[in-house]
Amino acid sequence: MSFSDLFDSEFKQRNKGHFSAIVRVALADDKFAPEEKLFLDKLAVRLEISQAEYEEILENPLKYPINPPYLHEQRLERLFDLARMVHVDHQLGDTQELLLRKIGVALGFNAENVDYIIHKALKLVDRKVDIDTFLFEMQNMNK
């Protein structure tokens, strides 16, 4: 196996882990809203998830571990995707919020301030900010 194959394989596994985390959030209320399904379809393409992998992840989203990115900005990008998934059906159920906090910690955010981070992320997504604004606001929220 070449170095590039190893990198591609690791990248693919990380994307599957990220996608499965988003599926877990979407399924927290045991059903997909049409907007959630549409978001998942688009995200699967963006993350290069094949149709077979997509169906496998939908069937068993716990199969793939959450692999937190090393870079803080990449963690924020994943949080952005997750927050949008929670927000897409405009109903933040207790189960979804709790799962989002757990996934936030799994992504590498500090457990002591994950509530603050999640709250800020959801407020930004509620305002329908783009990814660049989200990243800027999240990186500068304590200034």
From TrEMBL:
Q: Which organism is it from?
A: Flavobacterium rhamnosiphilum
Question: What is the official name of this protein in its record?
Answer: TerB family tellurite resistance protein
- InterPro entries, alphabetically? TerB-like
